[in-house]
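Thread: "does anyone have the structure for this chain?"

Original post by V.I.:
We have the sequence but no experimental structure in hand. Need at least a predicted one for the grant figures.
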Amino acid sequence: MATLLDGKKLSAEIRSELKQKAARIQNQSGREIVLATILVGDDPASATYVKMKARACESIGITSRPVELSASTSTAELLAVIDELNADAGVRGILLQHPVPEQIDERACFDRIQAAKDVDGVTTLGFGQISFGLPGAYPACTPAGIIRLMDAYQIQIEGQHAVVVGRSAILGRPVAELLLNRNATVTVCHSRTRDLESHLSRADIVIAAVGKPEFIHGRHLKPGVVVMDAGYNPGNVGDVEFASCEAKASYITPVPGGVGPMTITMLLEHTMQSAQAALGQ
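Reply from O.Q.:
Generated one for you, tokens below.
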């Protein structure tokens, strides 16, 4: 029987530690730790995500500063807002909620965020620094949460063959780089990959990040594999067929309660690290 990787429990433990750090930093500096969240337009799902992040901030003592802009906002106007937040010494993290309205050059706006405040891991510069194993950048939050969850259960990464199914800029690609930095051998699979099952059958670690419900089945996997399901689809199901994969795996993340809770927690941790760096800690 596979060991379930309890992201909800680990997330709660990390947040408890972060709450203590936040109180200590604010007592020492007399200043709030501020995460600015930019929401452009009125997409209901995006608004919900921003509120979730705000509640998470408040629960540990980080101040969430919402910046709400109209759906007609231009790229130039959004860049000006980001410039103001970059220049504000009280803001330790900046989060631009994806997606933005189609008239906005999203990549240009992501890349305008200062590296020191890119706590969501969205800038091209930050991705490059992470890829080369350089300090001073924060990885994308879901990939960071995956690695943190594996470390908490002392799962070996070095020397293992990891197969990442998915190549998105916020999940598949950055998690592949983090695994490479930990000396795994990494295969990245995607919609054009031939004979996906043969790649999966050789994997020691599978990262499911394809965005298709129950796409990966236990018959694709070898016994003892570690399965990290980063998918979340309607019906509360992930990208792997849980029952069949659990029967093959040594470790597996449930959905919900596995990778998901770690994402916002990593955002909080990165914001805290940014605040500590600003104070020279």
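V.I.: this helps a lot. The first strand starts at residue 3 and ends at 4.
O.Q.: and The chain has a mean pLDDT of 96.
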